[in-house]
Amino acid sequence: MASGYHSSLIHSATVQGAHDSVTEQLSQEAAHSALFPPHRRPVVEAKSMHEAAPLDRSPSLGHSHDHEWATPSSWKYRFSVVLFAVTSVLLACAANRWSDQLSAELKMLRGSFLIVLLLYLFLLNIRGWRAGNIAYVKMFDLDSDWMVFNSMLGISMQAGLLWSIGTILTLTLSALNWNTLVSYAPLAVWLVLTFYFISPAKSYFYESRMWMVNVLYRILVSPLYEVSFADFWVADQLNSLAQCFLDFEYSVCFLVSLSSYSVSQMKGIPAPACAAADWGPRLVLTCLPAWWRFAQCLRCYYDSREIHHLLNAGKYFSTFPMIATTGLLIAAQREHQNDWRSRPEFTIWFICTFLRAIYVYVWDIKMDWGFCNFANFPCNPFKSKNPFLRYHLLFSRRWMYYGMIVLDLVLRFTFLTKLYPVVFGIVPGQIFFTFLATLEVVRRFLWNFFRLEYEQTKGMPTESPTKINVGGAPDFLHDL
């Protein structure tokens, strides 16, 4: 009897202790949320993430309904990837054969294509970060790893299906010579995708879409808020989507122009009018992504007083003279169509663009990825286990790092191909610019791997050049 009584007391004390522990933990979380609400996150761009907790791979109960079908092995997802790839190839072939007839449609479909492509590639980024045990969930201040991956998988799948259907409809109408309707399909793609991302419907990954909208809002009003890791990371993605801003402006111009022409004149007339529009507003639109990152860097410097934020701001500021000289070069091309390369405008543009390419490349290697840190190397870097890289590498294949150093150099200087007119004699101009914009998206996709890896390794001890977590090889392609 006494034994049962004592057992009851022990059980009650255990339950009460667990309840007090949970209450204390909830109180601490509530206090942290009060100190740092979502719009006032502390600056984490320069902070280390190496002490991050293991990734939470458990599903979120509040999102189970949306994620039931959003898995890498789902036939719906695999179908969307194949359909997106096939549709992209068909659009490229059709634009190459009928470049004049599909010039306007290609411009309107290109921007949405780049966005959907980046969403698909972001899934591969997540798989790589998982393989390297990189705490990207903590860096982005998100919920669970399972929710993030499956939300992005579902969003990219739905966006890819919408884009593929709109593109197939465009090509079908063009093949049937229904010229009065063919231009509506690309416009519908923009409108449907925009509505999809900002829709207030409490389904279709509402929390994930609203997280993205919230981050975009803080980027738009930079530098009013403190800059979180997600803020500047998403703004960097926007810098690789600068072509989308021009294509979106072109689509809006085309849509407005439709009301000024009769149905019989709809095909062919609005497109040249939009293409010949004043380049002033278009250049301003091109500057917007660089301005947002420039403003964020100034805010980071204001909050932390660390000089490297000013140097980073200078990197984005170098975009402004390059774009300004681009406007001068366009004016020179229109006035001197044959000898514009001998004009001083061309020389000024080339100098500004070349210096900026060197600036951003060195920053990629040295500051964003942490390579070539000679201050922490012995006198002879070749005596190091990871020469010219860094002490800690989270991915097991070292050749990837050296290959990316070379590849980033090539992709940063792709603007040199614009100097050779023979290129435009082989490939139509719009297809060539689409190819360059696609290469920039791919470069950003590769940049993402090493940027978050370096953020993870900051603050790790550097007594010896070690390579940790050798299981972090990019063997994640088979899961998608």
Helix and strand topology:
Elements: H1 2-35, H2 64-67, H3 75-97, H4 103-131, H5 136-139, H6 145-175, H7 184-198, H8 206-220, H9 229-239, H10 242-257, H11 270-275, H12 279-304, H13 307-317, H14 319-335, H15 344-368, H16 399-412, H17 421-426, H18 429-457
Helix pairs in contact: 3-4, 3-6, 4-6, 4-7, 4-10, 4-18, 6-7, 8-9, 9-12, 10-12, 12-13, 12-14, 14-15, 15-16, 16-18
Summarize the structure in words.
This protein has 480 residues and is mostly helical. It is 66% helix and 0% strand. Helix 16 crosses helix 18.
Q: Which terms summarize this structure?
A:
disordered N terminus, mainly alpha, disordered C terminus, 480 residues, 18 helices, single chain
Brief write-up:
This protein has 480 residues and is mainly alpha-helical. It contains 18 helices and no strands. It is 66% helix and 0% strand.
The general outline is globular
Q: Which percent bin holds the helix content? A: 55-70%
How big a fraction of the residues is strand?
under 5%
Helix count equals 18
Overall number of strands: 0
Radius of gyration: 26 Å
Termini, distance in Å?
A: 61 Å
Supply the helix-strand structural class: mainly alpha
